Amino acid sequence: MYTSLSNRRSFLKKMAVLSAMTAAATMFPGILFAEEQEEGLPKGNLDWKKAPCRFCGVGCGVLVGVENGKAVAVKGDPKSPVNKGLCCVKGYHSVMALYGKDRLTKPLVKKNGRYVETSMDEALDLIASKMKETINDYGKDAVSIYGSGQWTIPDGYVASKLFKGCIGTNNVEANARLCMASAVTGFMTSFGIDEPMGCYDDIDHADVFIMWGNNMAEMHPVLFSRLLDQRMRRGVKIIDFATRTTRTSMAADKSILFLPQTDLAVANAICYEIIANGWVHKEFVAKHCNINKGLTNIGYGLEDNFSFKDQPEKIDFEAYKKFLEDYTPEKVEKYSGVSAKDIKYLASFYGDPNKKVMSLWCMGMNQHTRGTWINNLVYNIHLLTGKISTPGNSPFSLTGQPSACGTVREVGTLTHKLPHGVVTNKEHREFAAKIWDVPVENIPAKPTYHTVEMFRALDRGDIRFMWIQVTNPMVTMPKLKRYRDGAKKEGRFIVVSDVYPTPTTDIADVILPSAMWIEREGMYGNSERRTQYFEQMVAPPGEAMSDTWQIVEVAKRMGYEKQFYYKKESHIEEIYTEYRKHHANKKHNMAPLAVLKENPGMQWPYVEGKPTKWRFNATYDPACSNNEAFHFYGKPDGKAVIWQRPYEPAPEEPDQEYPFWLNTGRVVEHWHTGSMTRRIPVLHKAMPHAYVELNPDDAERMQIKNGDKVRLTTRRGEIILPASIKQRGIPAPMQVFVPFFDESMLINDITLDSFCPISKEPDYKKCAVRVEKA
């Protein structure tokens, strides 16, 4: 498979050059790299079929070459409007992730402390009987399923249908709660409806790109190459606003560093400047915006059974203006680390009526104990200036998983969600119940546990059964040791569906081998509301089965044959056709399957045979119905909300005992926990283990050199990692950075499980740590 890898080292180096942007000739997507992709491909008549890439939420289109029943090559799809033929280093090697030597191929059941191979029928029978037993003994809220933004749309849909519609519990969560829940609550609180109003086409129109804590060069390199292409074509500006110097910083026209958590204050200072300089688009704000203030001092979610509900109060513009007086650039400069001059520099782009601005963010804003607030504040900037829902004027939340938008946000695989709405709304429950053919009383009216609280409930014993699919929480959960120990307690039954052994399969009572990506049929939904279909191209190994069909089989064994009537040979089409009923309206209509099969994805809302690129703008969006230029129809009055949100410090800040900030994140070679990319030899060799980045001055003071062992200690525990100084990224003084892909160096053992009280998303970006040479 994929034997022609002669130029892999060269290619990897050149991709690194692309990420670092040191050679202009490598910055054009689809030219140099399209040719280079062809150079490394096997010769012969391969059968090429389209699919979305398996990795991040950009949703690049790829062509997979199949020969003799095996995926042997991959290249960028030139017909895809997302990547236009370009692949990043992970996407280019993606098919190799199918063929790791330790692939799971048979179900495993733990008996007397050891895993024993069994048949798939026996394993599914056991799972169904254990679920029934748990429900009978402890009640329906004692069973749960924890999925992923890597679930396909059919996977997530049948999971929600089984648990919420049939069993009658809202114990459905997905790992996207850990990475984009704040983006959801930001959209919902500001606009009353989820997902970006813009699209990737905004890149071709914007004059300025501002990265809000977003290392786009490494995390979304294909999209970032499109920014670089526009800079070379049109001279656009790229501004990096971050807590650490990264490859994005190196490629930017200007890099501005801020102290952790103070992005809240800087965003407010930008709003202050916009108002003080008369840059407010008064007509837009008057016609299309309300101003609200919410509760403050709202806690950090550190205690079990934490609950919070915001209480918005409408205020007038003068009250909001008065509030911002505490956020003058000069005042904010004193504690943010950002000069008043740089704050005014940022504000000048947003305030200039002749500049189109695209704000881009990912985990830096979302994994934040005030994640909803900082999302709101960036929307405030765009709303005050009217720079929204038009080509090139776009606040845009990027996504980390291939279907975090499609399967979690659209399908609604979070405790409070339904495919078209929320469980707390009676009409939404009635609508779902009718489609699912269940009594409306089956669907509980109250959410149960978000992800952190779900694992706390497992630890406490309130949850006794958990089915984990397509994710690796025993690497990704914050304050990990508590939740790992909790999962191992007596009286818990854990099922894990995956393709490789992981620290999560280590805690399982039953391990189910899953079909991966093109070994089954499905759809993903990417960051720009693009739904993409892929067919089954190769057979899965052994008894591996799609996650969709695993759930269907268990549902039937539990007595829900009526609701899970799907035929195996056509179940994806049947499920998707049923799913589309939930979104059959101008605000969210999904393209038919036949359209998805013929095209490299299609954006929703798909109305009268056309995708909607810019929502809430009557010129482009057929759902607008207020006879105005803009209609923010997610809110009852059609107006977006400008939120008054203050700066508040992080729950844990450096002190004398723990004087550094700890930040965690990703690297370009590996994807999330590395369970797939570490099976790709060239990627594993390029980045074989985790490390801790130190600021060079801090390292010199502590007499630490590259490769030296460094002990990191927090209030949760300690970990030892090799030092990285002046290599990939450079933290600010008294800060350190650790990637989380390495299961042999579990950095999340020592992170804090605080979260945004509104979104319930944990803050992986900041806690206090002591740093010592080991």
UniProtKB/TrEMBL annotation:
Cofactor(s) the protein needs? Mo-bis(molybdopterin guanine dinucleotide); [4Fe-4S] cluster
The signal peptide stretch is 1-34
Among Pfam families, the record links this protein to: Molybdop_Fe4S4, Molybdopterin, Molydop_binding
E.C. number(s) listed in UniProt: 1.9.6.1
Free-text cofactor note: Binds 1 molybdenum-bis(molybdopterin guanine dinucleotide) (Mo-bis-MGD) cofactor per subunit.
Q: Where does Mo-bis(molybdopterin guanine dinucleotide) bind?
A: 90, 150, 175, 179, 261-263, 363, 367, 472, 497-498, 547, 664-673, 748, 765
Gene Ontology cellular component terms for the protein in this record: extracellular region; membrane; nitrate reductase complex
Q: What class of enzyme is it?
A: oxidoreductase
PROSITE patterns assigned to the protein according to its UniProt record, in alphabetical order:
4FE4S_MOW_BIS_MGD, MOLYBDOPTERIN_PROK_1, TAT
Gene Ontology terms: biological process: cellular respiration; Mo-molybdopterin cofactor biosynthetic process; nitrate assimilation
Please give the superkingdom of this protein's source.
Bacteria
Binding of substrate occurs at 740
**Chain sites annotated for binding [4Fe-4S] cluster:** 53, 56, 60, 88
Q: Which UniProt keywords apply?
A: 4Fe-4S, Electron transport, Iron, Iron-sulfur, Metal-binding, Molybdenum, Nitrate assimilation, Oxidoreductase, Periplasm, Signal, Transport
Molecular function GO labels:
4 iron, 4 sulfur cluster binding; electron transfer activity; iron ion binding; molybdenum ion binding; molybdopterin cofactor binding; nitrate reductase (cytochrome) activity
Query: According to its UniProt record, which reaction does this protein catalyse?
Result: 2 Fe(II)-[cytochrome] + nitrate + 2 H(+) = 2 Fe(III)-[cytochrome] + nitrite + H2O
Q: What is the protein's quaternary organization?
A: Component of the nitrate reductase NapAB complex composed of NapA and NapB.
The UniProt family comment states: Belongs to the prokaryotic molybdopterin-containing oxidoreductase family. NasA/NapA/NarB subfamily.
Role: Catalytic subunit of the periplasmic nitrate reductase complex NapAB. Receives electrons from NapB and catalyzes the reduction of nitrate to nitrite. Catalytic subunit of the nitrate reductase complex NapAB. Receives electrons from NapB and catalyzes the reduction of nitrate to nitrite.
Q: What is this protein called?
A: Nitrate reductase
